[in-house]
């Protein structure tokens, strides 16, 4: 008791410093609990838990912060409110980091609904049954409510299912297989996107990515026609592999271009042989698409994924630059450093990762590529 009374006297004599009065976590001397103290305490707790479960993961203040924010989003907290709590200067930062949770929850609920439906009736996937609604339908891999690197402004991003390329660095190999994923009509997706219109501002809108969106051309045309009727800015993120000047593709593609504002065109490799090795496909139709878009003066952002030992050869970068110089419609050129964040998906699919042992490019390699390609500052 004497010690408790002594501590009360000492604590009363140590008033919190100005600005720290409302802190929840303070020491018995009314001083802030510093980050290092929290880390040590969490480490001790983790060590004790690992005596029970050796696989128990590391826990840090940052992980606790991320978990808190994730739960806030899952329970419907307004993004602007969460931005204030987290101290982000821009709400786009908050959206990019945490609002994937919203989509995860959405897909879980969709799956539950579909499972209930499937118990009631056998739903056929035959194409002849697709257009009972009178609308085009598509296979969709996933949706992203707030994209900030998929074209100008804040964008609603639709990731289509299906791709014929087999890029060695692909971080979404689960998008390759066709006729999988969730089926949507164009009207369903448009209405989902329009819910977020208030965040788009003057530059934002809808981006359709993949997979490869041009594999579902009829759906793309109908979706973008409806989007333009609503005054929505439209973007296609494509690797260009399906492109051909032959019919019926070419006529439909030309109509699609009438309602498309911008294309993000990925040119994986300018060297035909290296492109074949890297993607499993030829690049002549990709380059032909780039030429055609220049002919019709359709704005394009060019993207090049820089992969050591695959697409960072200086002679190829210079040839790519020479090719791009012949085009008159390029608004931006971007060098995207290769990363390994999608390796686990290859393992989950039972696939061997072809770039095992190849690290992301060094900063100097990226800067060299940007200099050669004259990347926009």
Task: Describe, in plain words, how this protein is organized in 3D.
With 377 residues, the protein is an alpha/beta fold. It is 42% helix and 14% strand. It has 14 helices and 8 strands. It has an 8-stranded mixed sheet. Helix 4 crosses helix 5 and helix 8 runs parallel beside helix 9. The radius of gyration is 26 Å and the shape is globular. About 5% of the residues have low confidence.
Give the key terms.
14 helices, 377 residues, alpha/beta
What's a quick, concise take on this entry?
The chain has helices at residues 2-13, 35-50, 61-74, 79-86, 91-98, 100-120, 186-194, 217-229, 249-258, 272-279, 284-295, 314-325, 343-348, 363-373; strands spanning 137-147, 155-160, 182-185, 205-209, 233-238, 262-266, 300-306, 330-337. Helices cover 42% and strands 14% of the residues.
User: Main beta sheet, described?
Assistant: 8 strands, mixed
In the predicted model, the low-confidence regions spanning at least 5 consecutive residues are 116-132
Structural class: alpha/beta
Q: DSSP helix count?
A: 14
Morphology call:
globular
> How large is the radius of gyration?
26 Å
Strand content: 5-15%
Biggest sheet strand order reads 3-1-2-4-5-6-7-8
Question: Mean pLDDT, rounded to whole units?
Answer: 84
Per DSSP E runs of 2 or more residues, the count of β-strands stands at 8
> How helix-rich are the residues, as a percent range?
40-55%
What's the end-to-end separation, in Å?
Answer: 67 Å
Order of helices and strands: HHHHHHEEEHEHEHEHHEHEHH
């Amino acid at each position: 008791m004497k010690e408790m009374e002594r501590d009360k006297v000492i604590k009363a004599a140590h008033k919190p410093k100005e600005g720290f009065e409302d802190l929840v976590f303070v020491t018995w001397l009314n001083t802030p609990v510093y980050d290092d103290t929290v880390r040590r305490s969490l480490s001790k707790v983790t060590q004790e838990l690992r005596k029970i479960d050796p696989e128990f993961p590391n826990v840090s203040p940052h992980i606790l912060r991320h978990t808190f924010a994730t739960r806030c989003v899952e329970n419907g907290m307004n993004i602007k409110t969460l931005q204030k709590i987290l101290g982000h200067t821009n709400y786009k930062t908050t959206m990019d980091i945490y609002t994937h949770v919203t989509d995860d929850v959405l897909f879980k609920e969709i799956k539950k609904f579909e499972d209930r439906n499937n118990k009631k009736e056998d739903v056929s996937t035959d194409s002849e049954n697709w257009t009972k609604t009178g609308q085009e339908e598509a296979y969709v891999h996933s949706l992203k409510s707030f994209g900030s690197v998929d074209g100008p402004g804040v964008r609603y991003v639709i990731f289509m299912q299906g791709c014929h390329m087999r890029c060695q660095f692909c971080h979404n190999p689960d998008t390759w297989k066709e006729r999988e994923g969730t089926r949507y009509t164009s009207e369903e997706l448009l209405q989902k996107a329009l819910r977020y219109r208030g965040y788009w501002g003057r530059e934002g809108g809808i981006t359709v990515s993949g997979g490869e969106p041009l594999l579902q051309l009829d759906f793309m045309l109908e979706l973008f026609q409806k989007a333009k009727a609503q005054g929505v800015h439209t973007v296609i993120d494509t690797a260009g592999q399906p492109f051909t000047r032959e019919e019926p593709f070419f006529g439909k593609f030309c109509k699609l271009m009438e309602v498309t504002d911008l294309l993000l065109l990925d040119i994986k490799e300018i060297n035909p042989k290296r492109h074949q090795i890297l993607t499993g496909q030829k690049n002549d139709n990709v380059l032909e698409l780039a030429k055609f878009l220049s002919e019709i003066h359709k704005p394009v952002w060019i993207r090049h994924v820089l992969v050591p030992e695959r697409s960072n050869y200086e002679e190829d970068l210079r040839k790519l630059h020479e090719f791009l110089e012949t085009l008159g419609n390029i608004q931006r050129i971007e060098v995207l450093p290769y990363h390994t964040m999608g390796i686990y998906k290859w393992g989950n699919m039972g696939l061997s990762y072809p770039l095992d042992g190849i690290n992301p490019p060094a900063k100097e390699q990226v800067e060299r590529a940007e200099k050669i390609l004259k990347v926009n500052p």
